[in-house]
Design a protein that fits this description.
EF-hand-dom_pair, disordered C terminus, 2 strands, metal-binding, two-stranded antiparallel ribbon, mainly alpha, 10 helices, elongated, binds calcium ion
Length: about 230
Amino acid sequence: MNYGISDNPRHVGLELGYLRTLQCVEATLDMDQKTLKKLVESISNTVKNFKKSEVECLVRLFHSLVERANVRLNNLGLDRNAFGAILHSVFGMTDDMLMNRVFFVFDKDHNNRINVKECVKGLSVFLRGTFEEKLKFCFEVYYLNGDGYICREEIFDMLKNSLHQQSSEENDEGIKELVDITLKKMDYDNDGKISFADFEKAVREERLLLEVFGPCLPEAKLCCPRHKSVNCL
Ligand SMILES: [Ca+2]
Ligand SMILES: [Ca+2]
């Protein structure tokens, strides 16, 4: 899928450099102070990983991103292309399949738009999440089809995708072997699929397995410690 990401930074409103210099005060917000305060208050009540001032900053940032991404969205939220562009330019993600999956995990009400609440909530896990929150997030990214398990076929698709393998009998055989090795390591109850309990146990034993099926969290250096401002995005 093409995320409309251009090599020419002039064509990309959401470039990293641009975001770094974007100050909260620059974001014009078509919302009165009372509404803003109410929104910040309600999001702050459900998101523990950001201070109230940071939530306000993210709300402003979100609105400016939506405005710049596509005015026709009428502030409903970020669509998959706009969100993918942010994941790419801000968080260095490059894999379309995983960016799609991250989008679906952020989009809690499944309306194909990420609204301000979904965005701030998602970012709180993405940037400041505890180990348990990240564990749940990664599992949700990987199981996608909604049945609560990562099945053999999904493991195959994700490994194939992350290894950038073309389809050929030889490659597919090699990936099938990797699937078997993965299941041997992670499928503790031997039912041929990875449940959350399997995933949790495996990752607790070996932290590197958290992103075993492809990177879906920002690099550690991008994650802000709690005492730093979200402006360090
Ligand atoms: Ca949504
Ligand atoms: Ca299992």
